[in-house]
């Protein structure tokens, strides 16, 4: 049901419904939307004027390696062990799971401010995440993409050179993505 081709087709349906074309359509994809934007650009290159990708690498195995080798070692290792134990037990709906992620990872990489200061729209967005889609495609958290998720082996690094439209890649030092890879 939740497949990458479906989401690419949905973007195309929206583009058509809005009457956008190569002269007017710049696609912005942030995080998972960056994956979707790359896939769309490869599937429909003649429809785009430009592409903006924010906070996403073009290779999930490289993303996971960065999380494993750079991000996870900076975390409190007892907290990381507890997060990984909850994931291994399939207990990701446990309120403790998100408390740990929010306090020890998200405030350092997703929105760099204390949780109590997160704006209401951000809190509402996190509360409205559809876990059926999110977990199926990526896994339960931003600590990497799970090996059993549909995107676990996704890589378009070798295909990037075939995207001939102007593209802007946005990333920063504190993102969960490797700035060197995005460069």
List the helices and strands and how they pair.
Blueprint: H1 4-18, E1 26-30, H2 32-43, E2 50-54, H3 60-71, H4 77-88, H5 95-109, H6 120-127, H7 131-137, E3 167-170, H8 179-182
Parallel strand pairs: 1-2, 2-3
Helix pairs in contact: 1-2, 4-5
Structural write-up:
- This protein has helices spanning 4-18, 32-43, 60-71, 77-88, 95-109, 120-127, 131-137, 179-182, and strands at residues 26-30, 50-54, 167-170.
- α2 (32-43) links the parallel β1 and β2 (50-54).
- Strands 1-2-3 form a 3-stranded parallel β-sheet, covered by helices on one side.
- With 183 residues, the chain is mainly alpha-helical.
- It has 2 domains: 4-59 and 155-182, no CATH class; 61-137, no CATH class.
Shape: globular
Total beta strands: 3
The helix content is: 40-55%
Q: Count helical runs.
A: 8
Distance between the termini: 33 Å
The helix-strand sequence is HEHEHHHHHEH
Low-confidence stretches: none
Structural category is: mainly alpha
From the alpha carbons, calculate the radius of gyration and give it in angstroms.
Answer: 17 Å
- Count of discrete structural domains: 2
- DSSP strand content: 5-15%
Biggest beta sheet attributes: 3 strands, parallel
Strand arrangement, major sheet: 1-2-3
What is the residue-averaged pLDDT? 94
